[in-house]
Amino acid sequence: MKRYRSVIVGTGGIASAHVRAAEHTQGRVEIVAVVDIDDTRMRAFRRDYGIPKGYTDFDEMLRAEKPDLVQICVPPALHAPMSIAAMEAGAWVLCEKPLCRSLSEFDRIAEAEKRTGCFTACVFQMRFASSTEHLRKLVVQGLLGRPLVAVCNTLWYRDSAYYAVPWRGTWSSEIGGPTVGLGIHAMDHLLHLLGPWTEVRAVADTLARDIEVEDVSMALVRFANGATASIVNSALSPRQETYIRLDFQRATVELTHLYSYSRENWRFTPAEPMNDEGLLQAWQLAPVDVPSSHGAQLVALVDDMDHGRRPLTSGDESRQTIELLTAIYRSAFTGEIVRRGVIGAGDPFYEALNGGRTTVGAKKR
Length: 365
Hints:
Elements: E1 4-9, H1 15-24, E2 29-35, H2 39-49, E3 53-55, H3 58-65, E4 69-72, H4 79-88, E5 92-95, H5 103-116, E6 120-122, H6 130-140, E7 147-157, H7 178-181, H8 184-194, E8 197-205, E9 216-223, E10 228-234, E11 236-248, E12 251-257, E13 266-270, H9 277-284, H10 294-307, H11 315-334, E14 338-339, H12 348-351
Parallel strand pairs: 1-2, 1-4, 2-3, 4-5, 5-6, 7-10
Antiparallel strand pairs: 7-11, 8-9, 8-14, 9-10, 11-12, 12-13
């Protein structure tokens, strides 16, 4: 079985998760180099994780190493250009969220995929757990009935020190607040479970942090299957929680966690407990538990690379998540209901999540 040579770009806090993810592949992914513009930090990361080579120049690394895979862990403004450059050098890409700054950038990534035959996948590790796959199978089989109501809350806490990092809290570099930086994981997970969305109405505000971007957003989303969801993304919640609730005709399914989850984080409540023993048994007949993690996603990506197959979190699957984020911001800035598919070339929100605007919510009053 082929071993894939990979390079980690960026040595911030999330980079260590990518090292552990490579270990999860049992030798299929070998980290051969690391890149960081800070030479001291790069050398320390190499030493801590035993990585053979280090670079301070991304393009130089691509020319010298010719990696099979590039794992991008740098600030969001660099995601799209680095992903495109890596694919043009013949590498596949696993890029931290958000994949890009706009739908326009996403479409340029898609064009590069067609041109190079390589793929760029976004890190959406919440999709990659055996319990989520089990739930999706029950839904497809129709055992739960139609989905009706959903709740998707990312209630996290980020203090002023968090936003003191120079690239955070700005439209130009972080490209948004908790909507794009925190809640994106749970929202993508929700879309993975419920399918295509059709329209959104939203509000956003900057209530407590001295930042350009929002520190809270709320949205109401309709789905093609008729379900309606409420979404809250917060950086202001001291008791932190990630919560997804799905009310189907025959059962309520809840997931409560923070940054990752396993089977024990789910709660299943049949609508008629005394008459739904078969449904409860179907829920309990879950496969061996594989928790959500970067490692689980990287294992799936390796299988995709083996088969030359588009990864789950690339293409249309990833675009609909970016489109939802864009629609939330457009609705929050304009006060309009935004329907899926209306944001295209010529719309300022196609070029930037904030549509080139800088004030939202209370700042406008």
